[in-house]
Amino acid sequence: GAPCPQWPYCRKRCSYCNFNKYVVRAVDEAAVRSCLAREARTLLRLSQVQSVTSVFFGGGTPSLASPRTIAAVLEAIAGAAHLPSGAEVTLEANPSSASTPCLAGFKAAGVNRLSIGVQSLDDAELRLLGREHTAAEARGAVEAARGLFPGRTSIDLLFGLPGQSQDTWAQGLEAALGLCDDHISLYQLTLERGTALAAQVWGGTLPTPPQDLLADMYQTARATLVAAGFRHYEVSNFARKGALSTHNLSYWRAEQYIGVGPGAHGRFVPWGEGGRSREARVQTLEPDAWMQEVQSRGHGTRRRVVLSPLEQLEEVLALGLRTDEGITRERWGRFSPHLSLEAAFGVPGEAKDLEQQGWLVLDGSGLRCTREGLGLLDSLLPALLCQLQRH
Amino acid sequence: MALAGRTGMWWARLRSRCPAAAPICLPPGLPAGPVAWERPYSSRGKEKLDMSTYPVESIRNFSIIAHVDHGKSTLADRLLEITGTIAKTECNKQVLDKLQVERERGITVKAQSASLFYNHEGVNYLLNLIDTPGHVDFSYEVSRSLSACQGVILVVDANEGIQAQTVANFYLAFEAQLAIIPVINKIDLKNADPGRVEKQIEKLFDIPIEECIRISAKKGTNVEKVLQKVIEKIPPPQCNTADPLKALVFDSTFDHYRGVVANIALFGGEIQKGHKIVSAHTKKRYEVNEVGILTPNEQPTHKLYAGQVGYLIAGMKDVTEAQIGDTLFLYKQPVEPLPGFKSAKPMVFAGMYPVDQTEYNNLKSALERLTLNDSSVTVHRDSSLALGAGWRLGFLGLLHMEVFNQRLEQEYNISVILTAPTVPYKAVLSSAKLIKEYGKAEITIINPAQFPDKFSVSEYLEPTVLGTIVTPHEYIGKIITLCQDRRAVQKDMVYIDEHRVMLKYLFPLNEIVVDFYDALKSLSSGYASFDYEDAGYQAADLIKMDILLNGNPVEELATVIHNDKAYATGKFLCERLKDTIPRQLFEIAIQAAVGKKIIARETLKAYRKNVVAKCYGGDITRRMKLLKRQAEGKKLMRKIGNVEVPRDAFIRVLKRQTDK
Lengths: 391, 660
Known about the structure:
The structure holds two protein chains of two kinds. Helix content of chain A is 43%, strand content 19%. Chain A is an alpha/beta fold. Chain A has a nine-stranded mixed sheet with strand order 7-8-6-5-4-3-2-1-9, sandwiched between helices. In chain A, helix 1 (29-47) packs parallel to helix 2 and helix 6 runs parallel beside helix 8. The longest helix of chain A has 19 residues, at 29-47. The two termini of chain A are 30 Å apart. In chain B, 23% of the residues lie in helices and 31% in strands. An eight-stranded antiparallel sheet of chain B has the order 11-10-16-7-8-15-12-13. Classes of the chains: A alpha/beta, B alpha+beta. At the A-B interface, helix 8, helix 9, strand 10, helix 11 and helix 16 of A face helix 13 of B.
């Protein structure tokens, strides 16, 4: 089990972000703290998870919470299940709320891994993204983090910004390589409906990045990072010296995770209330409503959907193929005791065609994308789902 | 091509003359003049009219013909009012135009008739006004209406002057040897110049200026004079009540309760309820249930007599039983049938498909009901691998197609995919084998799949039309260039006055079916008018063009076109496909080919990257929904080789382009 508590508040709205987040003048942190702790306890009990493998504080901007809150949630988790001392505890941090004393506080609270939202090391790009920090602040934050969490600091970078050229991206990447620790996430900017940036691009005030340029940027980044010793272990994630994110891997491996906090998503079997099937769960979005629910019934679960065996397999497929290891026979077998990976995809059909075209591999260890196929996964998946649905 | 009401529509200006649902006001008053009966418009089934008081000498059968919007229906409204046929009220607008589409577009689709009673110099006259459709698309209907007439009122707008349809209509009447009363309408308008229009009429139609009547139908000015001229100038029909019955069917409608209502003109004898009649065409026998006149609503009468015009109900179940142009006579008293009309030949074909296949049955029944009243539409079942089951419909012309489509949408609330219109080509076969196969040497090609290759054909033929364009002279240069681009051959060019020119061109029909009108209207700032009539077939260098995706032909995109247009059309289709087919994992060559020769090519590049950047806990549900929708969509795609083409792409390529 992998709890992922959400801190739903931000100081500012970024121009590209459509997450469930709230910018409020004053947060009643004590109330939020006790609710996060209480919900974590309730849901862990429901899931009957014995041992927690990782914890991920996401958001929002969880680095805006005080270390005391982080500590309280971790305490609650440890009280409800076994939290091994080596378990990965990640906190997402913004450079503007990641000073050394602040980070030291989080470390003392139990955090042992940081994911810093650098996004860019260019001030103009940061302004375009509506970020609060400057490139210099980002550098400072990363250096501070590396000092406190050596080998366990990750940075996020965005590419494919309107107007960004191949050259500026290559330079940004070089700069990031000079700064980073052993984990980098590179995200192509997705224009999300309802964001200021999307409105500007769709309205024509900012240029749309050409498809071919985006593909080139991705290829450049892959080549550069692999040359620097990184393993490209997921579509957007790179790690060296084995510094993979345990927590995120658990999503892609379709393991159980428990969403805690406003708008958090979870996937687990609620054994504690007699459930037998994996469920997709969503917590109430709006923080005040969520808090009321937690206070009155211990949790703010808004929606529970039992996932059918086919739906579970569809998720296993869509998520597992994002990783370099793909879907192992062992993992497939756990979700599909009757239909083997070979029986599903080793027969004439879409997967075989895609394999012949060089996008997929099905072998003794399992099903995975080729290097070329990984960047085209969204074109492969509908065909694979069609084939799976026929069984 | 734009729909009527959008910009650049040449045949109709969409404007609401009357709210679509405006009631036809029926009057409470009595008709003018002493007549033999009390209430000419009393509701059906009360007292029947006695029509015997109207001998042939007191009957005038006439039509009003005009270019669209020159005021034909307004004049008809005034004539109906003056004669007391309808009450004079504010809402008499296009009384004879009953269809919603007619009222909206200000055009007449179905001819409607009305009998008017008018006392002139102490004599009671029966004036039968036979309304005609407002466009030569419906020349079939116009000629039906005219064949029941002895004269016409030719209405010309005092401001716009002679327009293309004025010319076409004039010649229809002239060739039918009808008396023509020229009327210049809208003299109340600020820019009216009736003097100029009179000169045009004299120059073009050889009618003396003095014969023109200047009127304002809107205000009623001089309308009475028009009625007097109708009586003076139009001869009564030449026929005799003592002769055996000879009735011409000139229109028919379908009534769900009473079956076919046939509009008839009596060229001899008389007819009444109980008569046994026979159709000269089908030889079927019927018993007459009801006869009457149209005022303009059906008004039963005891009898109808020679020279009169009215309706007949005789237990016919299907409009095809009351064929336009058929002659009816009394059982055991056969007569020489009246010379047949030109039968309606479809000139423009288009595929019609339900937007959603589950709507197929609804569309089918709507088509059946609509064609009950419009026998000039031909319907053949058709199916397309991309668009599903549907029909190939044949129309008299473009307006006919537009109107039919609009009626489907308005009256049956059904929206359809209508494919780009095509024309019926012909091939003269030279291959003995094919001639034997078809049982004839000349075949009509409607579906490109049936296009015989040039080695088994001595000649291909394409339909042509004689187009009339009337335009202010400053646009001549541009219009001539446009016509030449459309492979048209100039036949005539006449200055109808100092500023206006009439051009006549022989056009291949397929060159005007798509966007000619829009082009003409836009380059003449809306001032040029256009009309056309069937001009038979001519030899043409036709070819079949295939569209290939990675070398595999796409059946539904094959087209028959003229060799000169192959390159431009091929390029256009390839470009459009490139914009509508989604990128795939491999490069796609989109080619237009004639035989083995590639004449146009576009390349749709392969996807190089297509994977969502972030996929963590919170996004998975949304992500899976999208993927599953894509998987469902994939199942509905048409596969051409390994290329997947969504139905939408076919629709966007095949569909008639209604906006630019």
